[in-house]
Structure formats: structure tokens, C-alpha cells
Amino acid sequence: MTAQPRQAATVLLLRDGVDGLEVYLLRRTKGMPFAGGMTAYIGGGVDPRDGDAEIAWAGPPPADWASAFGCDERTARELVCAAVRETFEEAGVLLAGSAEDGTVVPDVSGEDWERQRQALMTRELSFAELLAERGLCVRSDLLRPFAHWITPPMEPRRYDTKFFVAALPVGQEARHVSGEADEVSWLTPAAALAQAETGGRPMLPPTLHTLDQLRPFAGVEDALAGSPPEPLHPISPTFEKTPDGAWAVLPDGTRVRLVTPLPH
Questions:
Q1: TM segments (predicted)?
Q2: d(CA 123, CA 97)
């Protein structure tokens, strides 16, 4: 029986580095039930409470995100909030700000913030409760839609994943706080892909392909401006083996070389 894909959000957190655009990558611990040992972006499944209507909001409304991702408004709200929540949980970066003056929260590294981050991860605290206690709103204008991937039907664990790009807010620093990762890195897309090609940094096809999509952008501003303006078409690859290696084949015929074992 084919598993139903779970709604999930993934965030390509970006900054401008010495050598150009850099993206924040985590290497998932080897014992993880999904993509263990793989290098990936921040992200995870939607918590139903992410769609709470009382969450304060600034920026493009859920209807705009629903149009971009081809889903209903409730799901769109859940996805944007999941993207912001997961970024805080896994990197200690909060894409939120004051509901009064529109500023972005400048620093979320104190002990009181850390207690709330931990409570979010254990689900003792909902994202809506965190924002309400702090008088903050979700800043959906700090995010852009970037890609939409659905795990192929043959996989027992499937995700309907919406990919976002976001700039690291001024005054905040990404921190290695995720218990799901044993290494974090800021890398240029080209450097990350070079490491993947030599087998030193295994990645799943969506990570490889989206890194390649980021490669042409000179910096964060270009990447945010270059995000697809049209509704995104979901990608669910098929797989093939040839004498040249193993490939993920996308619906438009694009082939992504795999440096990891084929799904089975």
C-alpha cells in the first residue's frame, strides 16, 4: 500500500559570505529514520498547531502562499509557520518580528529563548504560544517559495515538501543546536556540490537539485529576487541505472546524478 505523503517545510537559509552566496547545511545523524547520514537543509513535518489562526502575521497572506504551492490556505499557513518554527528549532534563527513596528527580532540566543526553543522541540509549547508571549508575528515577507518535491510512491516514508529560501536576519547567528545533526556548515552551493560529487557529503536528489538551482546567484539579494514567481510544479522523480551511474529523473527530463544508493 502506498504511503500518503506528510506535509513538510524545508528552508534554504542564506547569507552572503566571502566567496559569495552561502547556504546553511546540516548533516543528519546516522541513526535518523529518514535520510540518516545525509546532508540536508533545515526542515521537518508540519505540526497541526502551526495553522492556528490566532498567529500574528506580517507579509504575504496565506492565500498568496496557497497559490504558490497549489494548496489550500490552511495548509499554506501551516507550511509557512512550520518553516519559521523549524528554522528556530534547528538553527536558533527566528524569522519573526514586532507586530507593532515591523522590525525583525535581532537576537534570540539568550537562556530564556533557549528554554522556549527546547519547549517547542518537545511540543510542550506551541509556536502560536511562543509568538503570543513575545508579542511577535510571523514575517512571511522574509521567505520566498523555491521548490516543491514529493517523495516517490515506492518509499515507505513520504513527504510533500515545500522549499523556502530565506536570508539570515541581521543580528542573528545560526547555531548548532539541532539534536538531529552531528555537523553544520555554511557552504557555497558549488562547494557543497563538489563535496557531494566526491562522495564526501551524501545528499538526496532534492538537495542536489536545489543547490544546483542556487549556484548561479551571486548573493542573497539575487537569490531572493530570483525565486520562481509562478506556481511551483511538484517534482516526484523516478530512478534509473545506466553504465554511467545512477540517476534521479525529473518530470521535465532533467537527470540528477546520484552519489547515494538508489531508493529501495
A1: none
A2: 22
